[in-house]
Design a protein that fits this description.
mainly alpha; 4 strands; two-stranded antiparallel sheet; two-stranded antiparallel ribbon
Length: 204
């Protein structure tokens, strides 16, 4: 058994100070380790939250686009819902997204200027179908429907229905707002950090 011989009051004070400093340093190290473990959990879970929120916002944008117009001369495929691809780097927990036109049906090139029909004309410009070129077209470059179904013998008198905005730009703006200071990503990060730090500190 170890014993300490205290010769005077000064020795006692020094001994207590040394003990308290070592205790404080150990508590600091425990806290730092707990915070490190907690932040690793936060990085993992905030990435999943971001991925889910990006997909949710995108699908809500496409739903509003579809809900704005109900086609009566063509059959909607819902391909825009499949356009976005969200990925997560498991090493860095970085979330990224892109738009893959190969997931859309059809993926044909529009004859006017080589624009991709669904990717550019529908998703990019907000047109609800139509064709912008063809024999007897009223206004080449602007999508029109052909009438009447199912024969489609002549061009409609007016341009095709168009959404008041670009679904692509609207989706990108909505996703950007998720990461603004005070936005959903920041709120969720703070919530997770507070929860996980408290849980890890309780284990020390």
């Amino acid at each position: 058994m170890s014993t300490y011989t205290v010769n005077n009051a000064g020795d006692a004070v020094d001994l207590m100070r040394s003990f308290l400093e070592e205790f404080a340093n150990e508590e600091k190290r425990k806290t730092e380790r707990a915070v490190t473990r907690a932040l690793k959990r936060v990085d993992r879970d905030i990435a999943k939250y971001q991925r889910d929120e990006i997909q949710r916002v995108y699908k809500e944008t496409i739903k509003r686009f579809y809900d704005e117009y109900t086609p009566n001369i063509y059959q909607r495929t819902g391909s825009l819902y499949n356009l976005m691809s969200v990925t997560e780097d498991t090493e860095t927990n970085i979330v990224a997204w892109d738009y893959d036109e190969k997931k859309m049906t059809p993926t044909r090139k529009n004859k006017a200027g080589g624009r991709e029909y669904l990717m550019d004309i529908v998703f990019g410009e907000g047109w609800h179908g139509g064709a912008d070129k063809g024999p007897g077209h009223r206004n080449p470059g602007v999508p029109y429907y052909r009438q009447p179904p199912p024969y489609y013998r002549h061009w409609d008198r007016y341009p095709a229905a168009r959404y008041p905005g670009s679904p692509y730009q609207i989706a990108e703006e909505a996703i950007r707002k998720l990461d603004e200071p005070g936005g959903p990503f920041w709120v969720e990060f703070e919530r997770l950090a507070n929860q996980y730090i408290a849980e890890e500190l309780s284990k020390t």
